[in-house]
Amino acid sequence: MKSWAIVLFLVVFATPAFAETVSVSTLSDQSSVNLTVYNMGRGLVKDVRKLTVPVGQGELRFMDVASQIMPQTVHVKSLTETDKFRVLEQNYEYDLISRSKLLDKYVGQKIKLSAWNQDQDKQTLSEATLISNNDGGVYDINGEIYLGYPGYAVLPRLPENLIAKPTLTWLFDNEQALSQDVEVSYMTNGVTWSADYVLVVNKDDSAGDLAGWVTVDNQSGAMYQDAQLKLIAGKPNVVQAQSPGRNRVNKEMMMLADSAGGSQFQEESLFEYHLYDLQRKTTIKDKQTKQISLLESAGIPLNKTYVVNNNDSNYYWQENAATRKLPVKVGVSFKNSESDHLGMPIPAGIVRLYKQDKKGGQQFIGEDRVEHTPKDEQVKLKVGEAFDVVAEKKQVAFRRISNRTTETETEVTIRNHKDEDVVVNVEELFYGMSEWDVLRSSLEYKKKDAQTLTFDVPVSKNGEAVVAYTVQVTN
């Protein structure tokens, strides 16, 4: 039995009777569905259903759409009879049935109240007038006002204009009685996706195995059965509506490209973004979070880094500044290239790093967020702070040249308690300084940019290294 039905409503006038045809479509008519999910919490749905609608004008009720649909983005067309089927008018019905709304419709009317009579040991019905449904029912029973009632409200019928599911309705004009494929596309809020990665670091921290997962969270109010899933990585511009209204429908409907239509995903460029097309169908239920494998790669060369930085801009204006310890930050980096066993554009997400202990158990060692990363670009991850490598900064000399200029001699001491040599990158940050210059240095340095001075300090195992430098700054 087909899920769509034709119901004739006869309205009697003084003139001959007029018949309006209403056709209903549900998910059982669906032949295919495509879901494209964007990073910004929106999805593009393309729902194709096989329908037979009568010739002439009528109403089509397209049910089982997302409850967070954006009606102004809806576009409907016949794929098989493109010149025969036209939509003249569109509405989005979302006044859904609920206990509160049902009672609201009967305020001022007579209803029945059902309660259990303990004395008579039976169910009794009382006739009452519902006076108000604000903060609980208020009833008039035989001239007395009841604030609530120990029982159930019994309504004579379902009121009009309430529906069980969100529904799109169209006034259509059809010239073909044969079965046809109708495609409805729309944007919906409430569906998001994100990427998560696990990087397992090897014994000597020189390489790692990377696994990526996609998490799709569907809170849109609809299920997508056997859907062709696509993901868009990037940041399309979104215009905020000036006057939000869920039932407001624009005459000019939003058209979207069909293209918005090893890894389980096939990646391709799309405008200035990247599209990931799942190479199989999947079902995404409403109120469901689904994870799908995105990528796997083993033996990625890693570069481990130690960084000490100081961004205290007051340091160069304080004579006799206190000696202080600086944290030594640990990171890893790798290149997203084919030669390093990667090369697919990496969507933004969180990378969690693990390493095996001596008994073979995986232990969490840190996490960081990676941005959208094209192929052949570096991925840099902050892992944590070193335990066995410590750094100390000391002001050795200070001289004020003028009200705006000072000279400061600094020593940074690094002690390495590990059983291996390390290289520590020391960064001095000159925020807010109009001019700065290195007058003397015990080690070769680089000006990384207009505000950053860096030293690469080698420290032998169980050893110590000191870098001394004199800087003149002007604010």
Secondary-structure blueprint:
Layout: E1 6-11, E2 18-25, E3 30-38, E4 42-51, E5 56-63, E6 69-78, E7 85-93, H1 99-105, E8 110-117, E9 122-132, E10 138-141, E11 144-147, E12 152-154, E13 167-174, E14 180-189, E15 191-201, E16 207-218, E17 224-233, E18 265-270, E19 273-284, E20 288-301, E21 303-310, E22 324-326, E23 329-335, E24 349-356, E25 362-370, E26 378-385, E27 389-400, E28 405-416, E29 422-429, E30 435-441, E31 445-449, E32 452-459, E33 463-474
Parallel strand pairs: 2-5, 3-17, 15-24, 21-29
Antiparallel strand pairs: 1-2, 3-4, 4-14, 5-13, 6-14, 7-13, 8-9, 8-12, 9-10, 10-11, 15-16, 16-20, 17-19, 18-19, 21-23, 22-27, 23-26, 24-25, 27-28, 28-33, 29-32, 30-33, 31-32
Q: What would you note in describing this structure?
A:
- The protein is mainly beta and 475 residues long.
- Among the domains are: 99-154, no CATH class; 303-328 and 386-475, Immunoglobulin-like (Sandwich), CATH 2.60.40.
- 1% of the residues lie in helices and 59% in strands.
- The chain is built from one helix and 33 strands.
- The strands form six sheets. A seven-stranded mixed beta sheet has the order 6-14-4-3-17-19-18, with no helix packed on it.
- A hairpin with a 4-residue loop joins strand 8 and strand 9 (122-132).
- The radius of gyration is 34 Å and the shape is elongated.
